[in-house]
Specification:
Layout lengths: L20 E7 L3 E7 L8 E6 L3 H19 L5 E6 L6 H8 L3 E5 L16 H17 L13 H6 L1 H25 L13 H7 L10 H38 L4 H5 L7 H12 L6 H7 L4 E6 L2 E7 L5 H17 L4 H12 L5 H22 L12
Parallel strand pairs: 1-4, 4-5
Antiparallel strand pairs: 1-2, 2-3, 6-7
Length: 389
């Protein structure tokens, strides 16, 4: 078990005496900058660097910090580490926890920074800012930053199915648009690269001025179709793996979120898998946490007589937010008599038919909360239609 420094249970109970060695890690591709503050060092931050990926060197530096602090104070102190969530993922966080080090991963966007137009930014400055943030967090100061909850390796790996499919779909769109653009420059606008007879139709095409397709253009389009067909096959494989994962989850737990989501008319395999793997596998204390995680929390701007709304924060999971907006439009089509759909229609009618895009975002937030309540507490959405058994 990792050694955890003392921290108050109540977040408002601020401590001033923290018996620990605090360390911030500023990670890059080549160098890891270690900024530390140890008891008995006269409030002086020390800085050291190791080669990126050198976990053994990092742990050796931690051991050296503990030995120096013990020599100064005749006491033993635990190590508390903070790093930003980023390109390195969570592997270092897990490696430190396996070594008994208390590790925290912070959302870098939640750390307060200078609002000057031109502010100095270096790895040394960022390391010190991270360390000050960690100290404030461990003292129990409220809302000083947002710590990221690292998913388990299994949860992290499962999410790759839906994310890979989204990448493949984007690549498919690029190739389709490229083929259409090449043909449009020759006066051809009726060709559909996704049709099964795409190869035969390519041979029969003629340009707008009655010529056969130029040789090199036909070869280029044929190569584009090769790549497109490879993508189509990979998309089918990804969807088959996704369906297998959903079936496996249903068999393992009859009340799994995926199975419960698929009961609603209008929610298909992709939407159910994304909602499950991106959000509903986690624990949320309340609906505000859930909306904030999706980036659908409101962002007010209030100062004196100025009071306006800036829209949703967009600071959460962009994949979850995108699927929710899409699902909200589908919900209006497939669940027109549900309480949520009736609320949307009444709200739009009250606004004279305007602000549909703004209202659909509000509907997406309400829908996410309603689905979360359904899979966690069994509260059925009022007026919702289920698929026939």
């Amino acid at each position: 078990m990792p050694t955890v420094a003392d921290r108050p249970d109540a977040p408002t109970a601020i401590q001033s005496n923290l018996a620990a060695i605090f360390v911030s890690l500023e990670l890059s591709r080549s160098i890891w900058l270690i900024t530390s503050l140890s008891p008995g060092s006269g409030e002086k931050m020390s800085k050291h660097s190791v080669r990126a990926g050198d976990v053994a060197g990092l742990l050796a530096r931690f051991s050296e910090l503990k030995q120096k602090a013990s020599a100064r104070t005749r006491k033993s102190f635990p190590i508390v580490v903070i790093q930003e969530a980023g390109l390195d993922g969570f592997w270092l966080h897990r490696a430190l926890e396996q070594e008994g080090v208390e590790s925290h991963v912070v959302d870098p966007a939640s750390i307060a920074t200078s609002r000057r137009r031109r502010r100095a930014k270096t790895d040394r400055i960022d390391g010190e800012a991270l360390l000050r943030t960690l100290l404030a967090y461990k003292r129990g100061e409220p809302r000083v930053c947002t710590m990221v909850r690292a998913p388990t390796p299994e949860d992290e790996d499962r999410r790759r199915l839906c994310r890979e499919r989204k990448v493949l779909i984007a690549e498919r769109v690029e190739h389709v648009n490229r083929v259409k653009g090449l043909l449009f420059s020759q006066g051809i606008s009726s060709y559909e690269p996704l049709r099964r007879d795409r190869r035969q139709r390519l041979e029969d095409l003629t340009t707008g001025d009655g010529r056969t397709l130029p040789t090199h253009l036909k070869i280029q389009i044929s190569r584009e179709l090769d790549r497109l067909e490879l993508l189509l096959a990979q998309i089918k494989l990804a969807e088959a793996e996704r369906d297998g994962l959903l079936a496996e989850g249903q068999a393992a737990a009859p009340e799994s979120p995926a199975r419960m989501l698929l009961e609603f008319k209008g929610i298909g395999a992709e939407s159910a898998a994304t909602l499950w793997l991106e959000a509903l596998f986690r624990h949320f204390d309340n609906r505000r946490q859930l909306a904030s995680y999706a980036g659908l929390a409101p962002t007010p701007w209030q100062s004196g007589s100025v009071d306006r709304e800036q829209g949703v924060s967009k600071a959460g999971n962009p994949r979850l937010r995108a699927i929710l907006i899409e699902l909200a439009w589908l919900w209006l089509r497939h669940q027109p008599q549900s309480a949520l759909a009736l609320w949307f229609k009444e709200r739009v009618k009250r606004n004279g038919g305007r602000m549909k895009k703004t209202t659909i975002v509000a509907l997406a937030r309400k829908l996410l909360v309603a689905l979360w309540k359904y899979v966690t507490a069994g509260i059925v959405i009022e007026g919702a239609v289920m698929k026939p058994a």
